[in-house]
Amino acid sequence: MSARPGFWRQVYDSVFRHKFGDTPRNRMLQITSNVFLHLHPATVRRHGLRLRYTWGMGGLSFLMFLVTVVTGVVLMFYYRPTAATAYIDMKNLQHEIPFGMFQRNMHRWGAHAMVILVWLHMLRVFLSGSYKPPREFNWGVGVVLLTLTMLLSFTGYLLPWDQLARWAITVGTNMAAATPFLGHQGPGAQLTGVTERTDVRALLLGGPQVGDAALLRFYVLHCVFLPLIASTFMIVHFWRVRKDGGISGPPATDSDAAAGRSGGQS
Amino acid sequence: MSAPRDDETLPDAVTTWPHLVRIELLATLAALSLLTAWSILVDAPLEEVADPNRTPDPSKAPWYFLGLQELLVYFDPWLAGVVLPTLIILGLMAIPYLDRNPLGNGYYTLRQRPFAIGVFLFGFVGLWIAPILIGVFCRGPGWNWYWPWEPWEIAKSPHLTNINLTDLLGIPAAIGGVLVAAWYSLGGVFWLWRRRTPALAQLGGGRYALTAFLLLTMAAVPLKMALRLLLNVKYVWVTPWFNV
Ligand code: HEM
Question: For ligand 1, what atom is nearest to the CA of residue A138?
Answer without folding.
Answer: 35
